Amino acid sequence: MSKSSNNVTDSSKIWVSLFENKRSKIALKMINSYSLVEFEGLLKRLHTQKHSTKEDNLLLSPAVYDPNKCNETERGSGNYITSNSIWLDFDGGDLTPEAFVNLFPKVRMTIFNTFSSTKDDLRYRVFIPTSSHMDIETYKSLTAHILIVIKQAGYVLNKKSHGSELKSHGLDLSKMGPVNIFYLPCQPKDLVGRYFRKFSNGRRQLDVNEWIKMIEPNVEFLCEMEPSNLYEFTLNTSTRQTNIDQARAKWIESTFIPGTGHNAFFVLAGSLAAAGCDEHDVRCILHEEARRARNQAQRKNEIEENIRSLMRKGAFYKSYHKNTGYPAIHSEKANTEVTFV
Questions:
Q1: For position 172, what pLDDT does the model report?
Q2: pLDDT at residue 253 in the model
Q3: Of residues 20, 60, 30, the one with CA closest to residue 325
Q4: According to the model, what pLDDT value does residue 113 have?
Q5: Going by C-beta distance under 8 Å and a sequence separation of 6 or more, which residues neighbour residue 252?
Q6: Among 35, 84, 158, 218, whose CB has the most other CB atoms within 10 angstroms?
Q7: Is residue 182 a contact partner of residue 60, using CB atoms and an 8 Å limit?
Q8: How far apart are CA 66 and CA 294, in angstroms?
Q9: What is the C-alpha to C-alpha distance for residues 237 and 235, in angstroms, rounded to an integer?
């Protein structure tokens, strides 16, 4: 195995896939425009959402998939491309979030409740960013080691056992690989069961190279993901940037013509979405370009309505599927209930 150079820092991007429901085989979109700090903030904002049922929420996978890579499946191991974060579910064990965090004092992570969490039975999900992109084998090696550390700390049972003095960890062993989906953060049905904490002080992303050397001292870490694979899921960087630059240039030209600001600003937003920008990117650029407007305050006030209008039209999702080769999917749930900002 050869050493990976795909290191992740606080300023690099987290890669995940978004799905409409458990039965979805094709991702609504791939999310890779958020830095680690921005992604942690996104999880915090999503956590404020309230849903009548957990099925009303969208789902996330730590993996990026190529639905055309395998003839038998579209969201299976054969379609896997990469992941640079680990996600774990804990359901009803004796291991509290604080106890889990203390087992890994150097590792940065965010922990939040699941929909079914209660005050007396805290159920939680863990997001752990990693220093490198990983293949499936590496991901599973890391989660297996996490389980070993948990059991060595005395949490030996999978589930609570009445009458037993042994402690349980509650880790969902069916979700130890990257080819799984998890509901996005939200408020629990029983609000007293809510929980959200980011553990970052003095901590960093899980160092994949360091952990693999510890787990298998004689094995050198390999990330099997090739740059060409990731290229298939994003616009050619130069082409994408050219389209963005052209859209901004047209907007700048319009600022010299009185009375065109409103329409030109919306055209700018649409052109950015067509170039492959997601809601987050479009919003940031619109805020920057609003400073060039004759009426800056009015343009800034139009940003959110422009974003909502594009979402209603499915512009972000159509652009994403056009640029990745995924089939076009329209989701009212995705357009109206979750805004990735």
A1: 93
A2: 81
A3: 30
A4: 94
A5: 289, 292
A6: 84
A7: yes
A8: 45
A9: 6
DSSP 205-242: -B-HHHHHHHH-TT--------HHHHHTTS--HHHHHH
In sequence order, what DSSP letters do the residues of 128-171 get, joined into one string? EEEEEEE-HHHHHHHHHHHHHHHHHTTEEESS--TT--SEE--B
The letter for the amino acid at 144 is A
Pairing of strands 167-168, 155-157: parallel
| 66-99 confidence digits (pLDDT tens) | 888 888 898 999 999 999 999 999 998 899 999 9
Please tell me the pTM assigned to this model.
0.69
Helix (H, G, I), strand (E, B) or coil at 283: helix
Q: Around Cβ 111, how many Cβ atoms within 10 Å? A: 23
Write the pLDDT tens digit of every residue in 290-338: 988 889 999 999 999 988 888 777 666 444 444 444 444 344 454 434 4
Can you tell me whether residue 187 is helix, strand or coil? coil
Let me know the angle formed at the C-alpha of 307 by 244 and 287, rounded to the nearest 5 degrees.
60
**For residue 88, what are its two tokens?**
């774990």
